[in-house]
Amino acid sequence: MISKNRLTPSGWAIIVLGVSALALGGCGRKGPLDLPPTANVAPGAAPSDTESERAAQPSVFNPTYGSEAAPAAPRGNKRPFLLDPLLGN
Asked: Segment Disordered: which positions (predicted)?
């Protein structure tokens, strides 16, 4: 008996894409690095940047920058959408 349990190129592509998605899914954890359990850290060590200084700096990664500014255009009338009855709006 000859069995055909070999993966096709599309099967390998699915496996490679799945593994790479899982591997990259854990990347980008936001926050400082974790210290080892044996590290001695002075309690209350604060970074030199304060919240107000960081909020004043323009940046692509700062969603609060410019939030005090007035909106650029007035809000328009609400237009109906196909899913409004389902969404309860």
From this structure: 32-89
